[in-house]
Amino acid sequence: MSLINAGRLLEAFMPLFLKMGIDRIAVGDMRLAVPALAILGLMVLRYIAFNLGRRYVREVGVDAAFDLRQRLYWHLELQGPRFFSRYTTGDLMARAINDIMLIRQLIGMGTRLLFVLGFSGIIAFIFMFYQSPSLTLLLLPALPVFAVIGWVIAKKIFTQSTQVQEGFSSLSAQVQENLNGIRTIQTHAQEARETDRFAASSDHYAKNYYKLMSLNSGLTSAMLMATGFTTLIVVGYGGLQVVEGVITLGTFTAFIFYLNMMLAPIKEGGVMVTLFQRGGSAAARIFEILDHEPEIRDAPDAAPLDEIGGAITLNHLSYVHPAANGEGWPALNDVSLEIRKGEMIALLGRVGSGKSTLLRLIVRLLDPPPGTVYLDGRDIRMLPVSQVRSEVAMVPQDPFLFATHIAQNISYDNPDRATEEVWRAAESADLEATIRRFPHRLETMVGERGVTLSGGQKQRASLARGLVRETPVLLLDDCFSSVDTETEEFILSRLKTLRQGRTTLMVSHRVSTARHADRIIVLDEGRVAEIGTHHELIAKGGLYATLERQQGRRDELVQTLTETTGGEA
Ligand SMILES: Nc1ncnc2c1ncn2[C@@H]1O[C@H](COP(=O)(O)OP(=O)(O)OP(=O)(O)O)[C@@H](O)[C@H]1O
């Protein structure tokens, strides 16, 4: 910045030599080499100072945007369910890209314009006063007029900028949602309706943007008119002073030069105000996110355990999802359980009975109330979140794959893991034969969200990712729903051997899965309805026994249909 200001200072000396030249010409003195060379030298120096200074200021803008982007990204990584139920992915992407770009422009261009033009305005004012105090004082009444016009329009620009940026966010959210749901849109033949819906949002955005640009041009024109009017008065009065011999022609020329220099920041007012107001509203949108404290974080007195065995205790655990804002039914209601280290537990229950919620609370993807979830006798809220998540692996209900190799997807937590371990996990998830058929085996790319794999293959890759970690606690959330019962039997028998001595909780809807567990917990409307072994629960004749009968009849029906249709059912 100081280099650019130095350039402005050099520029301010030019009119002095211009004045010297003109005054000499006026009296027939043709010794013009000194002023001409001085002006040339000053121009060269000014050019060098400006270029170096501008490059530096741009670098500052780019560096600041980089830092901000990194901070924002890290902050997003730490957020929990309340945050993600409030902000859409499209909105967050718009803030991360568009708003940070506006802040970069504000720093790189806006501050340069403000400080540099402001500085040159002050310098010009001093030089003008030195040349002609009376002409300079003539300008003073005009300054409040500039300020009032600028202030009124700037406020409107701020409000309009916020609307434009919010419009961009909702456009981005719409695109993101539509691309994610493209198969649903196409299978329902809704392409035209979605395109119309997008056109309406896009049109709304374009109108808001147009209004912002109109305000910007309005401000620029108002400033140009006001500065033009000021110049007219000065030129009129100054010209009169030249005619009357109060000032020389050289002084008058130099004065006009300084006047232009002083009015430059005002003429650039439209650009500057727009840059500042857009950058300001972008900064407000970014800081709104940065001010959102991550809801799941380490307690100040959290301390890690030396080793995690895998015993889990739930003590009167009740939970209402944050998106429900404390209203509605609790997803879990007064659940108390003791799960011993090394046990294999099956969680069974109807749709929406709270099975996934329970698993997510144990891995702290949701925050349980204090004193309700214990790992090896320690309240998990008193353990560092990173320890809980690295010792408790969870395979979610919806498998998610990254757009990279199969191997990197399976060994996601540790890219340097030995290939044999990856193969072993793939084999346990019954994925080994499938991978061997792929052209590049473990190095096969799976596309965005694993689009090149079938539903069952994705589910098994996600299972292998959980198994490969060999954690003391493994949570499987309905991971066998897309695999046939034969494959499921194979995986479960491998799982039993693999998880010997380690705790495993698996959610399922199928009695055929649950019967493999040491104990079965049946949830009903967020409460524990039954606990016991397969035989105990069948003998009890409760909900589990009913489910077993229903599923048994369904399996028999499928079997009969398969036989009568020759396997085409
Ligand atoms: N993010 C959320 N915000 C608000 N409510 C939620 C959220 N996730 C789940 N719920 C509600 O909590 C209850 C329990 O849901 P949960 O996903 O734990 O059930 P589930 O037994 O795993 O069901 P499923 O067998 O269909 O997977 C349901 O009533 C559900 O609507």
Structure description:
By secondary structure, the protein is of the alpha/beta class. Among the domains are: 59-290, ABC transporter transmembrane region fold (Up-down Bundle); 534-569, no CATH class. It has 20 helices and ten strands. Strand 7, helix 17 (485-498) and strand 8 form a beta-alpha-beta unit. The longest helix is centred in the middle third of the chain and has 53 residues, at 191-243. Adenosine-5'-triphosphate binds at residues 81, 321, 323-324, 331, 349, 351-357, 397, 478. Belongs to the ABC transporter superfamily. This is ABC transporter related. Residues 9-278 form the ABC transmembrane type-1 domain.
Share in β-strands: 5-15%
- Report the sheet with the most strands, covering strand number, pairing sense and barrel closure: 6 strands, mixed
* Rough outline: elongated
Query: Which ranges are low-confidence, i.e. pLDDT below 50, for 5 or more consecutive residues?
Result: none
CATH topology-level fold name of the domain at 59-290: ABC transporter transmembrane region fold
Ligand inventory = adenosine-5'-triphosphate
The chain-level structural class is alpha/beta
Give the CATH level 1 class of the domain at 59-290. Mainly Alpha
Could you name the CATH homologous superfamily of the domain at 59-290? ABC transporter type 1, transmembrane domain
Helix and strand pattern = HHHHHHHHHHEEEHEEHEHHHHEHEHEEHH
Mean pLDDT: 84
The total of helices stands at: 20
- How far the N terminus sits from the C terminus, by CA atoms, comes to 77 Å
Strand order of the largest sheet: 6-7-8-3-9-10
**Counted beta strands:** 10
What is the CATH-assigned architecture of the domain at 59-290?
Answer: Up-down Bundle
Helical fraction: 55-70%
- Rg is 36 Å
